[in-house]
From TrEMBL:
It comes from the Eukaryota. Residues 1-18 form the signal peptide. Keywords: Signal. This is Glycoside hydrolase 131 catalytic N-terminal domain-containing protein. InterPro entries: GH131_N. PANTHER family: GH131_N DOMAIN-CONTAINING PROTEIN, GLYCOSIDE HYDROLASE 131 CATALYTIC N-TERMINAL DOMAIN-CONTAINING PROTEIN. Residues 20-251 form the Glycoside hydrolase 131 catalytic N-terminal domain. It comes from Dichomitus squalens.
Amino acid sequence: MKGILPLFLFGYLSTVSGTILWDGRFNNYTTATDFDQWSWSNQVGTYQTYIYGNQHGETASSWLTLGSQYKNPATTGEKQGVKVKINATSTWNGGPMLRTELLPQTTNSLTGHLYFHVSLQIPTVNPPDPAYEHQIVFWEGHYADIKYGQLSGQNGVADTLQVITGGESIWSVQPVRGTWYNFILEVGSPGGLWVSTGSNALQKVYTGSLNGNGGTDWHVGALRLPINGNAQQINETDLYYSGVYVEDSGPTTQP
Ligand SMILES: *[C@@H]1O[C@H](CO)[C@@H](O)[C@H](O)[C@H]1NC(C)=O
Ligand SMILES: *[C@@H]1O[C@H](CO)[C@@H](O)[C@H](O)[C@H]1NC(C)=O
Ligand SMILES: *[C@@H]1O[C@H](CO)[C@@H](O)[C@H](O)[C@H]1NC(C)=O
């Protein structure tokens, strides 16, 4: 019996983490200026960085800051996280939305039954204005979105962090500023949502399709919608992200 138990535990542990298909944990980045190396003709690093306010000669690193203070301290597989900033000049290609977003740079299609990991924090300093809809993690097809704030065209859910798929909110909280929220978006079949805070193990809070099977057009960052199409007053607004990666099985439930 004494000999069998450790073998059993080893076998169990070895099945709970999968192969990492894409690792966006910023370990290959020294400072945010490394993000500026990426372009459509020089697709280096682990992130595509083309969505940010670019009307006044800004670069990706005008909006992104790396640092250990921007990661979930419970995560061990990374040295730093990223602070994503928007302000009134965050208009990308002249559009009305305020945007700073990161997307995976990878030759892997990132499709199938996969686990997309991301931890994020609504910070105590420069938090997003709850009066506005912020799309803060989403696929371009918007089949599953993490959002914060008053949804465009709706009332009464302003200070809310939620996950929406198929037009339905499948998880929501009034977020505590300065707290890390850990998510796994399980795409493909069966699909689902895993959530925890801080250093707690992620637990499956929703089982069901997220209406998509992944893909590389996955946006991590701040997109603030205008209200009634008007230019809006805004001070610096920040979101922090860490623990961003995609694995093919498991999932790993430690943040
Ligand atoms: C990250 O750095 C490691 C070590 O230098 C290297 O093997 C790996 O290819 C790099 N990955 C990317 C995506 O640049
Ligand atoms: C907005 O942020 C950009 C990029 O960091 C900066 O150049 C600009 O001065 C900021 N605008 C204001 C009003 O602070
Ligand atoms: C911007 O910050 C200033 C100084 O804290 C504050 O007076 C003002 O109301 C803020 N504006 C918005 C749109 O939040």
